[in-house]
Structures are given as C-alpha cells and as structure tokens.
Structure to design on (331 residues):
C-alpha cells in the first residue's frame, strides 16, 4: 500500500487530493496545525467526511524538527506540499509571515525529506502568480517569471528550491504551476467564492451588495477537483518535471460576477460596489495558461468548463444559504 503525506490537508486542494488518494487505496497522512486538532469543527469542515480514514499529525511549517519527526515516522512514498499563506492580498499586509511560511516552510520540507525519506516523491504547489506581469500570453513552462507580490515571490523561491533539490541531490521533486482553481470548498476571501456566497445571500435577502476591487483582472479559472488529478499524475511519471495546469481560457472578474448573478436571475450591476481599499498595490492583469505539456505527457485535461464551475459554486452556496450553513467570514 502506498503512503501519502499531505501538508495543507484541511484546505480546498488537500481535501480533494485526500479523496483521490483514498479512492486509489493509499494510506493518507496529513500535517495539521495543533490548533486545528483543538478546534476540529472550525478548521476541518472540508475533510470532516474523511476523518475516520485519515491519519493527522500536528506539526508546524515554522518548525523544522516537527516536520522532520512526522516525515521520519510516516515514511511517505509521496508528499504533496500544499500548505502556504495563499491569499495574495494578505501577502501585501504581512510580507514577512508570507515569506517565512512559504519559503522556509518549503525549504524545511525539502530538507527533511532529503534527510529522512529520500525516496519520497515530492510535489510543490507552484502558482501562476509566479508569472505575474506576464511576458507572453498564454504562459507555458518556459515563460520567464515576474512576480508582483510577496506571495508570488515566495512561490518562485519555493519553485527554485524544489528544482535545485532535484538537480543537486537527484531527488524526485517537482512543481505544478497551477492556475486559479476553485470549487464550493474555496475559502471566502478569494474572489470567486466571495461572489458566489454573496450572490446566494443577496438572492435570499440576507445581504444587498458585495464590495469588490478590480473587476477587469483576468484569470484562467478551473475546478480544483480536476487540478488535484494533475498533481497526482505528475508524481506517477518516470522522471520529475514541472508542469503548467490550466484551462487555456481567461475570464475577467466582471464576467465571473455577471454570470454568477445571472444564474439566479439578478444583474451584477445592481449589487456590486467598487471598494478602492480592495485594489492591490500591484495587480496581475491577465493570466492564461498553455497546458499542452500536461495534455501530452500526463494525458491530463480539465473536465469542468468555466460556466459549469460558476454554476456549481452558485448552486452549492444557494443550498447552503437556504439551510443556514453558509457562514461567510471573508473580507
Ligand atoms: O483574486 C481580483 C483580484 O484572491 C483574483 C490564489 O489561490 O490563485 C489565487 O490568487 C482576482 C485578482 O485570487 C476582489 O485583484 C477583485 O486580480 O481570488 P483571488 P488570486 O490573487 O488570483 C493563484 C493561482 C494562487 O496561487 C493564489 O494562492 O480578483 N479581485 N475584487 C478580488 N480579489 C479578492 N480576493 N477579493 C475581492 O474583493
């Protein structure tokens, strides 16, 4: 039986990759912060349905010894390093904690695997934010990076550390360069979930408006369930390489809002207010990925369209707002 270790297991991608790995017969372990174990109701809603099949270990990305001990004990065959401070806006408010968690945390994981489980295959969650002020459209694995936030910079550092561990020590370590991927499990601070949760609350009379920043930014949005399948496929290959994972289609935040409001028969212009405080100091204007390599080498393709994604998210939030389980805590 293969053993997998996941950091960030309580997050959106952690929950979907756990489901995929359990379905494949893996023994699945997760690293969680001690506070998550103390408040399971609050922190574990995405993996609640899996808890009796997962083995969770308290450790912190800030502590090398805590990570080392878990890796030594679990002896994973595969490690999915998904934990990070992943909210780009917050990385402008606290650049330092973003860099600490994302750069040092990744470095600790790489080093601990090298020391304690060198045969473990390692996946690093790279990001399209590494392309930032893009040099070309669409972007592929050879497009130069130009990150626009501490978050993007931290991901470039994690990507480079991972590449260097692969090249210097001959370890099976790689990065997926994943574009925005969403689902009904997305956190409320990200624009897609912020919009769909507000659409549901507005439709059901629990709110009247949603405050947003830049409506003209364009993103290549896919479904997280599709994207974790690409992560797994990367680690099943003969050689470790980096891959872009995207749909190849870009839509603006305005288009997302327009479609989400129309799904329930509302006009976004009646409910969206622009809040200057939500405009980022440096914006990434357009992201659009070229996933040809993933298609050709991994035989991977996305299966959920933009329209289906918006529809699924709105539908889930409508249901949650009706049964009282929709609790928004985003900005
Ligand atoms: O913003 C604009 C905002 O926060 C998308 C993370 O998973 O994907 C994500 O990063 C766009 C930006 O995601 C609001 O300015 C307008 O242009 O949903 P987001 P992100 O920054 O693209 C990448 C691939 C990652 O790796 C990250 O971890 O929407 N926008 N108004 C807004 N964004 C937010 N959050 N809130 C607004 O009110």
């Amino acid at each position: 039986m293969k053993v997998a270790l996941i950091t960030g297991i309580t997050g959106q991608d952690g929950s979907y990759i756990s489901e995929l790995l359990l379905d494949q017969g893996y023994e699945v372990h997760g690293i969680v912060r001690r506070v998550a174990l103390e408040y399971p109701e609050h922190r574990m809603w995405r993996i609640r349905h899996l808890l009796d099949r997962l083995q969770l270990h308290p450790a912190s990305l800030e502590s090398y010894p805590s990570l080392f001990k878990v890796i030594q004990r679990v002896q994973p065959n595969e490690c999915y390093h998904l934990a990070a401070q992943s909210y780009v806006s917050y990385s402008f408010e606290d650049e330092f904690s973003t860099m600490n968690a994302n750069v040092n945390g990744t470095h600790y994981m790489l080093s601990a695997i090298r020391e304690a489980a060198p045969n473990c295959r390692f996946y690093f969650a790279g990001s399209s934010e590494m392309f930032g002020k893009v040099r070309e459209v669409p972007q592929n694995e050879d497009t130069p990076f130009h990150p626009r936030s501490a978050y993007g910079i931290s991901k470039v550092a994690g990507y480079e550390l991972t590449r260097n561990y692969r090249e210097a020590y001959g370890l099976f370590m790689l990065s997926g360069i994943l574009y925005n991927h969403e689902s009904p499990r997305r956190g409320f601070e990200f624009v897609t979930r912020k919009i769909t949760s507000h659409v549901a609350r507005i439709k059901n009379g629990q709110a009247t408006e949603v405050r947003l920043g830049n409506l003209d930014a364009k993103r290549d949005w896919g479904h997280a369930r599709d994207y974790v399948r690409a992560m797994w496929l990367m680690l099943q290959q003969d050689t470790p390489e980096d891959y872009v994972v995207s749909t190849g289609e870009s839509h603006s935040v305005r288009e997302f809002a327009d479609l989400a409001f129309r799904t329930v028969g509302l006009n976004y212009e009646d409910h969206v207010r622009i809040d200057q405080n939500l405009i980022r100091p440096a914006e990434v204007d357009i992201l659009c990925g070229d996933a040809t390599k993933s298609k050709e080498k991994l035989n991977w393709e996305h299966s959920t369209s933009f329209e289906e994604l918006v529809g699924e998210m709105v539908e889930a939030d409508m249901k949650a707002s009706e049964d009282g389980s929709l609790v928004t805590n985003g900005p």
Q: What stands out?
A: The chain has a mean pLDDT of 96.
